[in-house]
Amino acid sequence: MLRITLMVLRCLFHLPFRFYQICKLCDIEKYDAATRYAYLHKLVKTINRRGRIVIDCHGLENLPKESGYIMFPNHQGLFDSLAFLETHERPFVPVTKKEVKDVILLKQVFWLLQSEVIDREDIRQSMQVIVNMTRRVKNGENFLIFAEGTRSRKGNTLLEFKGGSFKSAMNAKCPIVPVALIDSFVPFDRKSLRKVTVQLHYLKPLYYEDYKDMKSTEIAELVSSRIQETINQFRSDSLQEV
User: Which domains does the chain carry?
Assistant: First the structure.
């Protein structure tokens, strides 16, 4: 949490105004998704820079030309979403856990992005989130969901990807975009203020024709394997796992 403190202190002077602006943009009737996201996208770039974090982004050309896709990254830590908010140009909707939905500032950001909140212990509620995602993706929104369900706490080592996370994509018949995060655990899990580089690799998507005959568990295994292959290829040997 040392770096989070640094980021807060270096943004402290502007924090009240920024918080006011975010709250203002939460009026979804007045501000469209593109306007809301553009502000957050620009703000996160500044926050990351002041936190001495560099995002080494690859594969933006792999993102589908048309919106209406779901991104499935590995989940390494609290910083993951900030990497996407800096690098992903188009609005996207994150699927968030109920445990963080009422945290100050996060609550406003989630509302600004119109996030879907999931309770993994409530099967009925989880199914409703799948239905909502399917409908919204069909209507052209992009989503971000961590298929591991929780952060791995094992650095660049993946947990099992859950097949149920892919049900919305299967129902919507939309592109599935695997995304590899590398060293994203370092900024907030290491007690250091040294400049750090986080890698983010948008991989080639799976289109419906690629996975239509596969089970959700098979899709999960395929996406996971592609992400792990990328991590193995580009990870830094100088950083030890947590």
Answer: 2-234 (3.40.1130.10)
